[in-house]
Design the sequence.
C-alpha cells in the first residue's frame, strides 16, 4: 500500500502531543509555583537538581539559565586564562566554540569521524600544545564521543574534559572494563541544555552543569550566582545564570519520562533504518559500540544532491534540518583564528551531506512511512 500524505502537518519536533499527555499534572504544578510566587530559587529548583543527580549518577548538578551559559561557567570554574587553548570539534552548534572565544581562550579544532560525526580522538594528541588546557567533546545528535580514549589522553596530558551533553542527556557510555556511566558524568564537568526541543526540554530556556568534584561544584555554585557564597560578599567574578522555578517544575515532571522519551526516539530511529535499508544513495546513522544513541537528531548522509532532496521533501510537506551547514572553522566570526577551507575535510564533507529528519518522542509509523516513501522518491528523481 502506498502511504498517503498525512492530513496533519508534519513537525520536525512535536512538543504539543507530549504536553497533552502530562498536561493535568504539569498545569497544576506550574499554577502552584505561581501561587507561591517563588519564581526564583524556589524549592522545585533544588528538588530537580537532586533528582537529576540520582538519574545521572553524579554527585553534583548545578542548574543554570541555558546550555551556553553552562559551557561558559564550566570554563570559568576551571580557571582557564586568556590565551589558553581549548580543543573541540568544528562540527557542532556554535555555542561550544563561542564561549571559548568569549573568554579570550583559543578554540583549537580537531576534525570528526565521518560515521559518528563526533570528535576524532585519534587526531586529538597532534593538536595538543603547551598551552592546551581543556578538551570539549560534543556528544552530537545523541551519541557519545569516545570518552574512554579522551579521558585517557586528558589524563596523560593533564587536561580538563568538559562534556557538551546538550544533545545526549540520558545516553549511556560503556567502558571497556564493563562499567556504564551516563554521558555528562564522565568528564571533569558535564554541561547540558534544556532548550524546549532537546531530549529533556523545558518550556523556555534552561541548562545545568554536572560534576563529581566537590571543589568544582562549590566554585560553579558561586559563579552562577555572581561569585557569592555569603550574600553581597563576592569571592569570584561570576555571572547571573539561574533556572526559573517554573522551568524546574516542568523538568522535574518530565525527568521520570526521559527514558521513555528516549526509547520512543530509538524506536522511531529503528523504523527509519528499516525503511531506508538497501538504498545505496544514503547512509543511515552509525551506532558506536561504546555508547547508546538517544537520537536528538536522526541524521542521514545523502551522497549526492542533498539540497534537492531537502527541497523535494519540503514540497511534500516534510520539514528537515541541516545541522550544520557550515563548520565553525570557516564561519565568518571565527576567521580570525586562521583556519581555512580544507583544514577539516570530514566536517566540510558532512556539512554538504547531512540531512536530519523529523524526530521526537511522538513519531507515528504512518507519518514515517510517508517520509520514507518521499525520500526514496526524491533520490530517484
Ligand atoms: C543546544 C546546544 C547548546 C546550547 O544550549 P542553549 O540552551 O540553547 O544555550 C550547546 N551545545 C550544543 C551541542 C547544543 O545542541
Sequence:
Amino acid at each position: 500500500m502506498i502511504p498517503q500524505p498525512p492530513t496533519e502537518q508534519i513537525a520536525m519536533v512535536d512538543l504539543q502531543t507530549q504536553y497533552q499527555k502530562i498536561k493535568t499534572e504539569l498545569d497544576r504544578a506550574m499554577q502552584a509555583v505561581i501561587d507561591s510566587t517563588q519564581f526564583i530559587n524556589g524549592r522545585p529548583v533544588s528538588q530537580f537538581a537532586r533528582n537529576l543527580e540520582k538519574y545521572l549518577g553524579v554527585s553534583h548538578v548545578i542548574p543554570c539559565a541555558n546550555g551556553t551559559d553552562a559551557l561558559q561557567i564550566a570554563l570559568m570554574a576551571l580557571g582557564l586564562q586568556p590565551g589558553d587553548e581549548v580543543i573541540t570539534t568544528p562540527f557542532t552548534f556554535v555555542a561550544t566554540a563561542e564561549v571559548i572565544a568569549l573568554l579570550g581562550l583559543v578554540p583549537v579544532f580537531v576534525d570528526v569521524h565521518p560515521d559518528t560525526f563526533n570528535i576524532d580522538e585519534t587526531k586529538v594528541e597532534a593538536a595538543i600544545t603547551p598551552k592546551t588546557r581543556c578538551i570539549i567533546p560534543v556528544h552530537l545528535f545523541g551519541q557519545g564521543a569516545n570518552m574512554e580514549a579522551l579521558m585517557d589522553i586528558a589524563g596523560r596530558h593533564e587536561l580538563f574534559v568538559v562534556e557538551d551533553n546538550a544533545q545526549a542527556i540520558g545516553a549511556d557510555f560503556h567502558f571497556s572494563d564493563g562499567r556504564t556511566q551516563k554521558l555528562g558524568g564522565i568528564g571533569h564537568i558535564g554541561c547540558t541544555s534544556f532548550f524546549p526541543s532537546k531530549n529533556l526540554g523545558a518550556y523556555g530556556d534552561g541548562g545545568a552543569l554536572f560534576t563529581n568534584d566537590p571543589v568544582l561544584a562549590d566554585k560553579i555554585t558561586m559563579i552562577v550566582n555572581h561569585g557569592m557564597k555569603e550574600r553581597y560578599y563576592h569571592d569570584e567574578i561570576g555571572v547571573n545564570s539561574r533556572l526559573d522555578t517554573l522551568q524546574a517544575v516542568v523538568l522535574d515532571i518530565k525527568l521520570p519520562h526521559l527514558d521513555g522519551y528516549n526509547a520512543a526516539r530509538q524506536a522511531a530511529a529503528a523504523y527509519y533504518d528499516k525503511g531506508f535499508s538497501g538504498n545505496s544513495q544514503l547512509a543511515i546513522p552509525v551506532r558506536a559500540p561504546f555508547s547508546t544513541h538517544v537520537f536528538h537528531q536522526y541524521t542521514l548522509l545523502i551522497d549526492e544532491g542533498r539540497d534537492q532532496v531537502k527541497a523535494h521533501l519540503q514540497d511534500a510537506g516534510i520539514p528537515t534540518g541541516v545541522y550544520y551547514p557550515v563548520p565553525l572553522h570557516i564561519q565568518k566570526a571565527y576567521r580570525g583564528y586562521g583556519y581555512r577551507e580544507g583544514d577539516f575535510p570530514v566536517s566540510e564533507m558532512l556539512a554538504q551531506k547531512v540531512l536530519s529528519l523529523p524526530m521526537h518522542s511522538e513519531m507515528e509509523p504512518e507519518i514515517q512511512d510517508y517520509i520514507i516513501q518521499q525520500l526514496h522518491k526524491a533520490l530517484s528523481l
Notes: The CA atoms of residues 196 and 203 lie 6 Å apart. The mean pLDDT is 97.
